[in-house]
Amino acid sequence: MAEKKEMIPKQYDIDAKWDACIDLTVRRFVYSASAGAFGGLLFFRSPVTRWASIAFGAGVGIGSAYAECSRLFDGPPTNLPLPKVSETATQNVPDSE
């Protein structure tokens, strides 16, 4: 007899989301820290500024991974309705001529 596999919809598969998020975070951390190290070696002579450029690159990588992972878990942003503006408010605005 064929086994019946339960298929979890993509938007509810938390394990796949965590795997993708961890993979994305590690990649962006390593790539941006490497870019910071290369930039630090290229532009700075002081070891302190070189380490600062590595830390800045790593922070950029982690920050961008965090933003992407939060979008992955929360879904795309919803379109909020525009606020209603009364006709009297638009009539009282002076024209700039």
Automatic annotation (TrEMBL):
It comes from the Eukaryota. Component of the MICOS complex, a large protein complex of the mitochondrial inner membrane that plays crucial roles in the maintenance of crista junctions, inner membrane architecture, and formation of contact sites to the outer membrane. Transmembrane segments: none annotated. It is a single-pass membrane protein. The gene is LOC100783683. Belongs to the MICOS complex subunit Mic10 family. The keyword Ion transport does not apply. This is MICOS complex subunit MIC10. InterPro entries: Mic10. It comes from Glycine max. Keywords: Membrane, Mitochondrion, Mitochondrion inner membrane, Transmembrane, Transmembrane helix. It is found in: Mitochondrion inner membrane. Residues 87-97 have a biased composition (Polar residues). Residues 76-97 are annotated as: Disordered. GO terms for cellular component: MICOS complex; mitochondrion.
